């Protein structure tokens, strides 16, 4: 592959050559050739560095896809095996009795990845969570049997889903029915990306997205993951640590080449001074990062941060029953810094704990009278992953409740899934906070693949349905049905629900009819200063209960 750079006047290479000529004078052609060789060697070194950087970035990119697929497949495997074990544990004389079918329905409802689960006799599905199937639905012989005895059927068409090919995983006389593409249904930024799931021992391809060769699974000979360049692709292969399966993801090597060229356009013009230029860039970036952190520390001291409050509405009555406290940053120049920018900066530089303390201090100063005036009104506060992994937050919240002179249950602590990553630490903090009377909510529910496992592992009071799912209500999007599944799970676990980002009456009507209790969003109000929130509360109360 060759890359040509125009020799424009003023370019780095052109300037370097002119300087060399001035230094060398008329030393002859051999000296000029040596100078050109030096330039070529520096360009080659810059190209090699560009390739290495591109390989690191794209390897991390394709590994991310493979990890997402593996995580989804592990979740599916856990639900399949767990559901079948529950049915085996029942051990009744008639596996298709009314009580068994009821259990199948319960398993189906609690399992987000299963389409159905049922009893298999021979090669026929005789009953399932969908009911009895007399004389039985023909599944056909298994395509293959794994080393652990799982019988895999990859292409089964059922009367209740005509024209749709489903996968059936059978074990010890029971079978789970799955969408074949569920584990590989990962958002890809590249249309020609390839995804796949394979069995652990046999390296048989279970399902794939795109024409992904089965032999690629053999690239992983030892360890848990690898990335290789082969067959014109950058290929990531992973093995599960808990299940006998693995995942693959691949991107055409053209993306690696494109990334290499992108880095090269930055590095090559530096020519002979590549090393010096890279050192300067690194120093400038580090200095810029330090300066941003310094600015943020100063902003906290000067109290440039302030709170706004977005009302939380009871859908059945329209009453404002609470509000979420949201942090905003207005610099002394008047510039507003977006929350996703300064929160990320705080998390990356160890300032997030100070930010949380700042928020609690503002709440203590501002919201006491409002909360004391209505014991049924609650305030939602966002906690970071750092907070949930540190026992210090318990004392801070105890102090806040005491200073506000309110019951702890008037404070709802919203935690995103990242707050539960260190499960042992987070579980201890959650248990302690709930024992104190504080309420715990999972924020942005549904945006991570481990949402269901968090509901099963941690005791929480409510979940907030992410705006990205609310936006799909009433659309033709494939994700439009996710909301109903989330609502069903919450009901089965008896959790309260808050829908975020409600913007239309049609969304509100759907949520209310579906049993969602609370909502927030611009349909009701934008985030408000405290005085505007108080005025809005009076106005909303008057509209609900007119005098």
Notes on the protein architecture:
Residues 1-35 and 274-283 have low confidence and may be disordered. It is globular and about 70 Å long. 44% of the residues lie in helices and 23% in strands. The protein has helices at 12-24, 29-90, 98-110, 253-267, 274-301, 339-348, 352-366, 368-373, 385-388, 392-404, 423-436, 451-457, 467-470, 482-492, 505-514, 530-544, and strands spanning 116-121, 124-128, 131-138, 144-145, 151-157, 165-171, 174-179, 194-199, 205-209, 225-230, 233-239, 245-252, 305-314, 320-330, 336-337, 378-383, 411-415, 439-445, 462-465, 496-499, 518-519. By secondary structure, the chain is α+β, with helices and mostly antiparallel strands. The protein has an 8-stranded mixed barrel with strand order 13-14-16-17-18-19-20-21, surrounded by 5 helices. The longest helix has 62 residues, at 29-90. A hairpin with a 5-residue loop joins strand 11 (233-239) and strand 12. Helix 2 runs antiparallel to helix 3 and helix 2 (29-90) packs across helix 4 (253-267).
Binned strand content:
15-25%
**Biggest sheet descriptor:** 8 strands, mixed, barrel
Runs with pLDDT <50, length 5+? 1-35, 274-283
**Helicity level:** 40-55%
Shape: globular
End-to-end Cα distance: 80 Å
Record the strand order, biggest sheet: 13-14-16-17-18-19-20-21
| Number of helices, where a helix is a run of at least 4 consecutive DSSP H or I residues | 16
Query: Can you count the beta strands?
Result: 21
| Radius of gyration over C-alpha positions, nearest whole angstrom | 30 Å
**Mean pLDDT value:** 82
Structural class: alpha+beta
